Amino acid sequence: MKLVPFFLNFLFLLYQPSKCGSTTNSSTQITSPMLILPLKTQEIPSSSFPKAPNKLPFTHNVTLTVSLTVGTPPQNVTMVLDTGSELSWLHSNSTRIQKPVFDPTRSTSYRPISCSEPTCKTRTQDFSIPASCDSKNYCHAVLTYADSSSSEGNLAMDVFTIGGSNFTGTIFGSMDSGFSSNTAEDEKTTGLMGMNRGSLSFVSQMGFKKFSYCISSLDFSGVLLLGENNFTWILPLNYTPLVEISLPLPYFDRVAYTVKLEGIKVKGKLLPIPESVFVPDHTGAGQTMVDSGTQFTFLLGPAYSVLRNEFLNQTMKSLRVFEDQDFVFQGAMDLCYRVPINQTWLPALPSVSLVFRGAEITVWGERLLYRVPGEIRGKDEIHCFTFGNSELLAVEAYIIGHHHQQNVWVEYDLEKSRIGFAQVRCDIAGQRFGLFR
């Protein structure tokens, strides 16, 4: 699920250069590297949003982006960081006017992959159809996403340079055509960086066994860390194991960061949701994924309905419900409120906790309601509950978005097959790493 308008830019720097080699081949395991990066956000004006009668399109309002260089000589690129995708890709169509592109003809280290090579023959879950041969016998791939965006082009390899470290032979998609559901985002980024557990993902190719991030909700500054984390002040982390299955199922993404959701609490009280609601069925539908490429959190209908009703019941006396059955924010969020424009605060809201095996994420305060840009009714703004119904999007899964990971240190431990969570002030974390003053 790739969606957007707001931007988080990662400006790479090498925090401890003595611990990173200057050159690393992607086929070689990296020995305890550590790259620490500042995280910033830039808001896009509400005028950038396409309009539709009584409904906004299904598009997200924040995306995480990474700045690095690709090719020889190096070209600056900006890529969306996405833990829900495998194959990284770059726009390579030089006809894109006033939009960032990677020009393969300017790179002496660029090499297209032929359709006879093993990489082309091995189908990944990112390919909606198997890779094929183009007229030049190059490996041709088509990628499609849940928001109807798509990208099409050839597989290739080149040098990716991050914080002074070179990663040669990195496989990616050199895309020359496609469709974006959000032109405002598309004009700002050069491509997408896949970070899931698939063999072609960026983190797999680079050999990182662990990565972490911390997204701030205060001053839009946070941290991305690639590699081992040895900072004791971040601990303790509460870990939940990744769910893995041996047999392929049609609707289960085996390379996603899948965790076991065991329950949902409102104001500390566990909701009466049957355990079976959180268990994937015989087709694999119903898994729970942690996805940095999605902003908000989406739940399957039975769980969403119970949560929605409880949150509504607990806020009816303090908030005025927006009674418009035709208005559904982003196609899935149908619980919205009218808040006076001149009201600078929200009333106390009941916290919502997502209970995983061994860990919890608790969402409270302003993160529970999102002001819909550009939507005014009389003297009121529209604020919507930041949990949505995934079934309204025809998505048979629970998806934990990064809006609900704000001020949480999130660690992806690939070696031990687990994800760790800890409550952290992310702006202060950035200061502790020396990234912000």
TrEMBL record:
Residues 1-20 form the signal peptide. PROSITE patterns: ASP_PROTEASE, PEPTIDASE_A1. InterPro entries: Aspartic_peptidase_A1 (IPR001461), Aspartic_peptidase_AS (IPR001969), Pepsin-like_plant (IPR034161), PEPTIDASE_A1 (IPR033121), Peptidase_aspartic_dom_sf (IPR021109), TAXi_C (IPR032799), TAXi_N (IPR032861). GO terms for biological process: proteolysis. One of its GO terms (molecular function) is aspartic-type endopeptidase activity. Residues 64-422 form the Peptidase A1 domain. The active site is at 82, 291. The keyword Glycoprotein applies. Keywords: Aspartyl protease, Glycoprotein, Hydrolase, Protease, Signal. Belongs to the peptidase A1 family. This is Peptidase A1 domain-containing protein. It comes from Capsicum baccatum.
